[in-house]
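Exercise: predict the fold of this chain.
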Amino acid sequence: MDKDRQNYYKAKKSELFVQFDGFNNRINDLIAEKYGEENRVKDEIKQEYENLYEEMPYIGGDNNSLTTDLVSAVQCLAVYNILKRHKKPLKEIGELCYRAVDEYLSNNPELVPPMTDPNVIGFIKYAANESELRKFSGDWVYNFIDGDEENDYGLDFVECGIYKFFKEHDAEEFTPYMCAMDRIMSKTGNLGLHRTETIAEGSNRCNFRFKSGRKTMIVNTVIEDDE
């Protein structure tokens, strides 16, 4: 497994660091806007991301769509670690990352997976079944819930890869801000996500329910809906 991890992240490093550099540019513009030009910490955040990159768990690579979620969350974790060292408040760090992701997906809606497309739902059900085999300790584990009159389908996550990694790095308090970003994904992709609980916010599951076209409704303890 260590060899799989090494081979995957080594092969993907150039691509993923190009993505990270774009994120780092955006987040540093927001940091400078909020705190002033003298507070730019671009190089520090990049070095922190490089350190975290070497520790990211292998959860199946490109065969697992949630690898993208993990990589994106670790970008934000690098920001959290550096700004926390600079004594910035948790809420402000979380809101900066939320804003950076919101602006990016608003300008690039095609990046949101078509999770309510009937042709995709079958694959999601397969992936849920695979997750229950627990092949990778750092992965998510989730159950597929068949659709009904209210929902196209649902997912109950009982283990969260982001929560696990953040906990290892004493960043549990920051995890709910990652949960909040599912609101951005749902609104941008018109996924109609309803969710009332998450592992990061004290529950034993994250209860995702999707219905294409309906209003997104996510309960979150750290960022309120702006609508």
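Check your answer against the key: The radius of gyration is 17 Å.
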